[in-house]
Amino acid sequence: MFQNRAEALALALPAAIFAAAVFLVPVLILLSEGFRSAAVDGAAGGGWTLSAFTEFFSSSLNRTVFLRTLRLGAIVTVVSAVIGYAAAFAIVSLKPSTKGKITGLVVLPLMISPVARTYAWIVILGRTGIVNQAFQALGISEAPLRILFSETAIFIGLLQLFLPLMIISLISALENMPKDAIAAARVLGANWFQVFWKVILPLTREGLVIGGTLVFTGSLTAYITPAILGGSKVLMLETLMYQQVSVSNNFVSASVIAFILIVMSFAANILLKRVATARNRVRTEARGTQ
């Protein structure tokens, strides 16, 4: 045991300095490029400015890409939560031996390269793929549908990529929930919607916050899936950033995009935490007034 707090801080200081030098400083240098007037205007010296951000959002293409990235990230997160709760609840209800095997199958896709999984979707969603063949066989469509290189393809790829993270987070939260909470709510006359909304959701909010943050952040920052399934026609912020660096050699715009992605990721985590905390506060105050 450490005798005092100063001793503990002194021992942790070398690790903190190393982490800051290796991780924090390079990120700050990269992000600062978007605020430096010399990088934007080519002027010698300095000053700080937001002109790079103003120029970025003045482009209709950039605004479209920004809104598309935000929309797809939000949709993937919501759908992952809906499917994740159903899957996690079903897995937790299984016998321990069976639950371990099913959980292993859920984790298994995370061990496969995202490149291999994404190229598999090209085979499935292509004009001669399984999906189009099924649609034509069922009479839904006479001609093959254009699914690849669309927002739908990106959504499917991102959902399959990050859904296991949501399921794992919710499984852990459901396992820590009191075993008799659902039965008690049912005995008191609550229907299944009330059980989920007033019992399961508040008791598993931490797992939802963690899973939602992982899925939303991953959807924002994923590159391989949007690049392959969206192509050059359906850009996301991460693919646009790659184009700015590799094609246009515009590191200032890339710095702006990186800053936007980081802010969006932190904002999502804060928003989810605030929603969960506010909901818990309302329930606590309601019980206190009874």
Total helix count? 14
Number of domains: 1
How much helix is in the residues? over 70%
Q: Estimate the global geometry from the Cα principal axes.
A: globular
Question: Which class best fits the helix and strand makeup?
Answer: mainly alpha
Query: What would you give as the CATH superfamily?
Result: MetI-like
Q: Cα-atom Rg, whole angstroms?
A: 24 Å
Determine and state the CATH class: Mainly Alpha
CATH architecture: Orthogonal Bundle
Taking the alpha carbons of the first and last residues, their distance comes to 46 Å
Number of strands: 0
The percent range for strand residues is: under 5%
What value does the average pLDDT take? 85
Structure description:
This protein is an all-alpha fold. It has one domain: MetI-like (MetI-like fold), CATH 1.10.3720. Helix content is 77%, strand content 0%. It has 14 helices and no strands. The chain has helices at 5-32, 37-41, 51-58, 60-92, 96-107, 114-125, 130-137, 151-175, 181-187, 192-203, 205-221, 224-230, 237-246, 251-289. Helix 4 packs parallel to helix 8, helix 9 (181-187) packs antiparallel against helix 10 and helix 11 (205-221) packs antiparallel against helix 14. The longest helix is centred in the C-terminal third of the chain and has 39 residues, at 251-289. It is globular, with a radius of gyration of 24 Å. Mean pLDDT is 85; it is low at 39-44.
